[in-house]
Amino acid sequence: MIVGVLLAAGASSRLGQPKQLLTDAAGTPLVRRSAQVLLDGGCDQVIVVTGARATEVAAACAGLARTRCVHNPDFVEGMGRSIAAGVAATPADAAVLVATCDMPVVDASHVRALLAASDAGTRRVASSYAATDEADALVRGVPALFPASDVAALLALTGDRGARDLLRQNDTLSVFLQDGSLDLDTPADIARWHEAGGRPGVRSPSSSPLMASTLFATALGDLDYEFAQTRRMLERVPQDHLDFTPHAKSWALNKVARHLCDFPEWALFTLQTTELNFDEPMPPKQIPTTAAEYLKLWDDAVAALKAYLPQVTDADLGVEWRATAGGQVVIKGTRAEIIRGMVINHMIHHRAQLTIYYRLVGVAVPGLYGPSADEQ
């Protein structure tokens, strides 16, 4: 059983009015709309956690099938207590999908994708989206599904951090949510939402570049997005199928996954050098044996690249770079062209290769440009 826990207890102090009772273009209160989305997305039942304006919030949910309200008298202590109050009201051994009612971009298809990725509620799955703070390209947050094994930790939550620490654990899977950083906290948020007819427009993957360089933003702006999707593939590396290969001439699964971890390093190497000689010996590579180890390798490489990017200029990206083998030039182009082709496109090629491996060994493939067959 998967139970939706809808957080609707906040006092909306920044907004100046209860966001739970704001209405969409059809005149439906957001709290009722959000509960219906959870039901339509596959939750067996929904528990709405009330706090401020509890009577009005409960009235807005009246008559909604498989939905009941639970009051949290300690709602002023933060989201953690509201999550705990909702989880305490769920049946034993149920998985829990925690959501809020101030994220209007969440729809039933996204909820279905979370449930599909959770393997019948047995895996923790977060939503991932661009952070409002540019210091961190992507964050994991709600809506998020927690397996029954997380219930004890959820019941112990306090304060405003919510379940953030759980979602940051390396075994957390993620499903990308376009515009997920938009929540209705201020009058400006409400105005933007209403101007878009009750749902904000879809932003292209390239609209959140890692750096301010004009050339980077136009030619390489999707690096951040594509790196995030590659990380989602590495989250699912199956420890019991590392040696799998679909053909005698194919790489083993662990080698394909390890190769994906090379690409942030290659991007940094390209920015810091002007030439690579393939005839020179390469240092030996560590081959991880768990998904957590792959993610550590990946995250460290991405962090190093991000730390370097702010100093990169358009002129730097226009510098010619080349690779040689046997005294011959085998690859040549500007740094921007090399990163576009030999890093981003090359990474996408091997990431697609890994999706085939996953399908053959029974690992659910995440949707990288929309829901995958496993998420529908």
Structural summary, described in words:
This protein has 376 residues and is an alpha/beta fold. It has 14 helices and 10 strands. It has helices at 30-40, 54-60, 79-88, 108-117, 151-155, 164-167, 187-195, 214-219, 223-234, 253-260, 262-272, 291-308, 314-317, 335-361, and strands at residues 2-8, 45-50, 67-71, 95-100, 125-130, 138-146, 173-176, 275-277, 320-325, 328-334. The strands form 2 sheets. The protein has a 7-stranded mixed β-sheet with strand order 3-2-1-4-6-5-7, with helices on both faces. A 3-stranded mixed β-sheet has the order 8-9-10. β9 and β10 (328-334) form a beta hairpin. The longest helix has 27 residues, at 335-361. 40% of the residues are buried. The model is unreliable at 199-213 (pLDDT under 50).
The helicity comes to: 25-40%
Strand order, sheet with most strands: 3-2-1-4-6-5-7
Number of helices: 14
Q: Main beta sheet, described?
A: 7 strands, mixed
- Unreliable stretches, pLDDT < 50, 5 or more residues? 199-213
Q: Radius of gyration, Cα only, in angstroms? A: 23 Å
Give the overall pLDDT as a whole number. Answer: 87
**Which term fits the overall shape?**
elongated
Query: Structural class of the secondary structure composition?
Result: alpha/beta
Order of helices and strands: EHEHEHEHEEHHEHHHHHEHHEEH
